[in-house]
Amino acid sequence: MTSESSTAERLARLSTDPVPRRAPSSSFVLAPGYGLGGIVDAILGAVDPSPPPDREDAGDAYWMRRALLAAMAAEGRASPNPTVGAVIVKDGVLIATGATEAYGQRHAERCAIDNVADRALLRGATIYTTLEPCAHWGKQPPCADLVASCGFARCVAGLRDPNPRVHGIGLDRVRAVGTEVRSGVLRNEILAWHLPYLFPYLLPPAGGRPLVSALAVAGDGAEPLLGRADGWEARDAGRRYRSWLRRKCDLVVTEPSLASVDPVAFARGPWRGVVWWDLGDRLAGMGVAEARELGVRGRELGAPVTLVCTPDRENSAQLDACLRAGIGHLAPPADADPASWLAAAGRNGALAAVTGAPPAWVLVDGHPRLAAALAAGLAVDAVHALHPADAPPTSGGAAPARPAQPSTDLSPVARVAASGALISEYYLEPLSSALDGTAW
Ligand SMILES: [Zn+2]
Question: Which of 43, 94, 312, 368 is deepest in the core (most CB within 10 A)?
Fold first, then answer.
């Protein structure tokens, strides 16, 4: 990227140049039905038909799955803490569940333990937690000390916490009192759920950039068309999974258009912010009345909305109309490429100002042009791809769809057939190699 060329020129080149190839896919895979959003069947409303196993120690994966379901059901927004789930099992019977509360409040293990009125019941029981119990004082006392004090027979964790203040220390502290300790149950699947929290430990060179995932639609070939969200709402599975992702991520990034403001899909759920990123001069092409309507509807979403655009003569009236409606505004430098700007905005607090806290997970919802620009800058980490039963057209239409990269570079992590659609998730380089190298 040269500084002489304008953003518009570079974006124009993106639509004609091949997206840079990345290294072959990693060996990091998930069991079918698991993804970044957790257990996809549960999101789609499918009932888990499997009964609890007879023997507790034979069913660690079963109970860890239940712990993950507890995390998924959490109402509180724990971010930037991980949303941990915990269950307590005695004699093969579930006696308590818990999940991390809103940031600064109780952690999952404490919630589950507090849900057992008679602490004597905990003696000889097993506690399952998706992440190693914390060992340090933050806004809450250490969970490891509490777990160690309860007389549990076993403590089973999905994975160890890479935070150096916890890593191995939490489980050692529990082991020290004679509780049997196991970690690594459903490891990859739990790792996927906690990925927004784990991302800075996986890719420190990302320089403060949050985890970025993007919607895509599979074409008639195997290549997902990055940034395409058309077709998602028409399919029951697509609509539900998209809505779930919007509620679980910290920041939704989409195009500034009336079509992107769906009050039914967006108003639900406690996610924390929306960015309208104007790359295609969409704002300048709008009438002022339409911009005013966009601003009003954005304000009504119930979440802070910020417009990212470079002010100029063509869009000043429309920008004013949005700002008067209470929409925030960030102006990237005219020559900044989106990937670099996103990383800088993560570092300098611009994104935190939108959401109220540094976002851990950004979802690019639609917006093919932005998704392509971010992918070219290695700033798309995961792709949620919808494979409609009858494939959508791969050319034509308004969206300048671009493949993420050749399909041989993609590693499928979730394949769920439901309602005539198949949803896949992929981790892209450099994240997929980083996942290969973890020993948590
Ligand atoms: Zn804790």
Answer: 368
